[in-house]
Amino acid sequence: MPRYHFHVSLEGTLLRDPEGRELPDADAAWEHARMAAVDLMQTDFGQPVNWAWSHFEVTDETGQIVLEFPFTEAMEMSTLPQRRRVN
Predict the structure, then answer these.
(1) Which segments of 1-87 are extended strands (E)?
(2) CA-CA distance, 62 to 8, in Å (whole number)?
(3) Regarding predicted confidence, which is higher, 82 or 66?
């Protein structure tokens, strides 16, 4: 199974995912990015995050970009519940 890395771009800073995740295909990677974006947007980081400027950059094992998933797309697809606080 291919391994996908879900690098997060938060307001211009790229946070790399060194481990990645094995998933069957790019469609599954897209769905994982969507769910992870929703999860992150529900988290209270103690300071505001501009999700409109944030996205996942999903790469394959060779480092090639497979897809970019804007967090705004996840906002459009779901109603977000209350935020949870990170300790």
Answers:
(1) 3-10, 13-15, 21-22, 43-44, 55-59, 65-70, 84-85
(2) 18
(3) 66
Count how many domains the chain has.
1
> Is 16 part of any domain?
yes
Distance CA 37, CA 56 (A): 8
pTM for the model: 0.82
Q: Are 3 and 60 a contacting pair, CB within 8 Å?
A: yes
* Residue 87 belongs to a domain: no
pLDDT surpasses 90 at 85: no
- The whole domain housing 43 covers 3-82
How far from the centroid of its chain's Cα atoms is residue 80's Cα? Answer: 15
Q: How far apart are CA 3 and CA 1, in angstroms?
A: 7
